[in-house]
Every structure is written in C-alpha cells, then in structure tokens.
Amino acid sequence: MKSFCLSLLTLLGLLVLSMNALAQQPSPPLTVTTYDSLTAIVNRLDQQSEYITNEVIGQSVNGRNIVAMKFSAGNFGMDNNKLKVLIFAQQHGNEQSGKEGALMLAHWLLMKENTWLLNHLDLALIPQVNPDGAEANKRRNGNNMDLNRNHLILTEPETQALHHFFDQHLFEVTLDVHEYAPYGDDWKQFGYRKNTEVALGGCTNLGVDKQLRSLANQEALPFMMDYIRRAGFSSFVYCPGGPPEIDYIRHSTFDINDGRQSFGIQQTFSFIQEGMNGEDLFADNISRRAAGQMTGMTALLQFAAENRSLIKQQVNDSRRAIYVDSLQTRVSIQSIHLSDGSILELPLWSYFTGKDTVVRVQDYRPTVGTLTDVEWPEGYLIPLQNTDLLAWTARHGMKSVSLPENGVKFERYFIHAIDSIDFERDIIVDPVTEKSETSLADDTEYLFFPTAQLKGRLLVIAMEPKSMLGLVTYDRYKNHLKEKTYFPVIRVVKK
C-alpha cells in the first residue's frame, strides 16, 4: 500500500509539473537566427549554466561547427539510471523552425521549474545539423546532398558526425525535427491542404522491435499529441502521400536512410517531428512555428521522464535480442504499405471555405507488410578488394571478427537479371537472384562482419542484393549489381 501511495504521489507531482511547463515558455524568435548568432547563444548558455556542456561533434562541408548541447544534472552519460535522449534539428537548411524551437528548448530547460527533468534524463540537443544549408536557406548541404537521405551510406561529414556522436553514447531515445510544406499545386487542385502545426511519427521498419513500435504508437504518440494540443497547437500523426482519391496516404517511410529510422534500426525509441513550414519557406510566422516545435520536443521529454524505466528496459531488451537473432528466422528486405481496413479522419484546411475540416480517406495504408524476407545470417564476408564496401563498414563503425572455423556454411547470389519495383512511388532495382551454397575461393581474402552487433539488422538490410533499402539501390554502389555475375558479398549461415 505504501508503494502504491508513493507512486500515486509521484504521478500527481509529474502532472503538476507538466501543467506548469505548459504555462512557462521562453519568448519565441521574431527573426531567423544566423549561424554566428546561434554560436554566440549556445556558448553564452554554456558559460552561464552548470547544466550545459557544449561539444563540437564535427564540421560541415564548409567548415562550420556542429554543436551538441549536453544537458545533465551531473556527469553526462555516466548515470545508468537516467535515460539518454538525443534531439537534433535542421538537417534541411530551409526548415528553420526546428533550430529556433531547439534554442527555445535550451532556455526552457534552464528555467527553475523545468530542471527536474535533468534528474531523470541526460539530453543532447543539436540545434543545427546543416549550418551550410541554413545560411543559404537551402535544403541540401554544401555538397548538394540531402542529409536526411544519407544516413545509410554516410558520405557527408554532417551525418558522419551525428552517427559517431550517437555511437559514443548509444542514446535510448531520439527525435529528428523537420518541417513539411503543404502548399503543393496537387493539393490546391484537390481543394484542401494539410494544416497540422506539429505532426509526429514513430518507426515503421519491420526490423525495429515490435514492442518499441507498439509503445510509440499506442502510448507515446497519443501522449505527445495531447500535450501539444493542450498547449494550443494542432497535432496529428505524420501522414505523407496523397492527395486523397489521387494517391494513397501512409505513415512515414520504412527506409532506414533517414535520421529517425537509421537510429530506430539500432533498436532506439526513435521519432520524427514535422512542423508546418511557412509559404515563403523562411521567416513566415517563425515565432509560432518555433513555439510549436519546442512544444513537441518538451512533450517527448515529459513522456520519456515519466516512462524512463519502461523505455530503458525495452530498448535494452531489444538491443540484446540482436545478439541472438539467429533464433528469429527471417528478416524483411522488401516491404509494402498496406491497408488495415480503417478509414483515416484526416484534418485538412479547405480552399473552398477557408476553414479547417476533416476528410475521410478511404485509401489509407498505415501498416507495413513484407514482400520478401531472408534467413538471418551469421554475418557477411566482404572481399578485401571491395574497398568501397569496407569503407562503408568503417564509416558505421562495424566490427569484423575472425570467421568461425566450424558450424557454418557459405552462400552466394547469382544475378540473373535486374528488374525494377515500385518503392513509395519511386522505381528502384529489383534483381532476379538465385542463392546457392559455395566454398571460398583460395585466391580471395575476406573480412567477416557478424550480425551479432548493434548494427546487425542494418548490415543485413544493406548487404542483401535484393533489398529494397540496400546499398545497391544507390548510384555509389550499383556497380556491384551486374547481370549474369555473382554478387561479391558472401553470406555466412549456420549449417
């Protein structure tokens, strides 16, 4: 009985603190913050507060610093009872409100009534992943690369810095903050457009542990959306696709090359947040956009603090399971968005009436199913002469080990032909393959990369030649996929 009373008092206390947090917010920005101003702000906060330690985690293409603000009521990352949270914004340079919301969050966390969170969480906040794009107000980085499509191949210094930082701390919770633009001509012709101020999404790839996906969809997202609405902003599940009756509506991509799912596939409680962009894609209504973004971030922190033990347990259990995944026989490498029979009540804004409305979407596909799966291997052998593939494993920090001497056999794929397949309205390669048992060539040296490591699921999805999300779907690696030849990477499986 005493334990129950204490738990009830704790929950009531958290509820009161949550309501106070909604009432206490720093002033939103009136203009967009430049890189120099951002640098001055984060440095000043570091100097003024004992809760912050700044770390330069890397540089952009043009040499600008990428800074992580590490918040902790103690030594960051050293208390195993705390939950480690990573929030990062502005991968796309023309999505300014995420950065502004992150700066608001930094000030909000230092308010006396909010520092209690830091007794339960260690938060790393990266306000700006793409400083070069931000200064030019352009989506891409200084190499003209879309950073949020680079998390698998990791060719850019900005994404490399982000992943190396993640690898150092193995955050249990991540949030990737973006903006979406609802003003396309196809939606205008439809007569409606999306009008959600803060849209949220969890992981959808089937390689992310089912319990983590369930906790996100059934508990975290409803909590966060309710929190955001109580703060005076509209919120809904992030639903790309459409317009309705023209194309289907789905949840976010199941690809693992973005900031949300690339960490999710490492069994992280991972989310995406999409604020609504302004019509001019820059400073239009920046104050409200930033305040909405900050509110979404605080909603995640509140949920994480209140559920830290459950989240930590599920993340740890899911990560440990990777090391015994040979007990799980299949891995999905080609997937599809499917209907579950439900009709989506989609909140939109009407060009006809100039008011918010709701449209019933019949072609709604909220679930992900498997088209093709493969047996979980012990690992992969990469020939030493394939330096580009080995460089990729190095960028991800993947570990190679000695090849087991007994109890394994080797398989290789013959590429009969290269067909194509639709992937979220993109046409990508779909090779016709034949798998057969083989022996290792005496004149070829290999490195063995086991799947029994944190990035094991990522390794399987990347290395399978028929994978819809694999390396061979990128121009950089398509030369490994040739008709009437064997795929160079060899599977190692149990006998």
Describe this structure as you would to a colleague.
By secondary structure, this protein is of the alpha+beta class. It has two domains: 10-326, Zn peptidases (Aminopeptidase, 3-Layer(aba) Sandwich), CATH 3.40.630.10; 377-494, no CATH class. It contains twelve helices and 21 strands. It has helices spanning 2-23, 35-48, 97-109, 131-136, 157-169, 185-190, 210-230, 261-264, 286-306, 308-322, 387-395, 456-463, and strands spanning 52-59, 65-71, 83-89, 121-126, 173-180, 192-194, 198-201, 235-237, 249-250, 269-276, 330-338, 344-350, 356-361, 364-365, 367-375, 379-383, 408-423, 426-438, 446-450, 485-486, 490-494. The strands form five sheets. An eight-stranded mixed sheet has the order 1-2-4-3-5-10-7-8, sandwiched between helices. Strands 16, 17, 18, 19, 20 and 21 form a six-stranded antiparallel sheet that branches. A three-stranded antiparallel sheet has the order 6-12-13. Helix 7 (210-230) links the parallel strand 7 and strand 8. Helix 1 packs antiparallel against helix 9, helix 3 packs across helix 9 and helix 7 (210-230) packs across helix 9. The longest helix has 22 residues, at 2-23. The model is unreliable at 1-19 (pLDDT under 50).
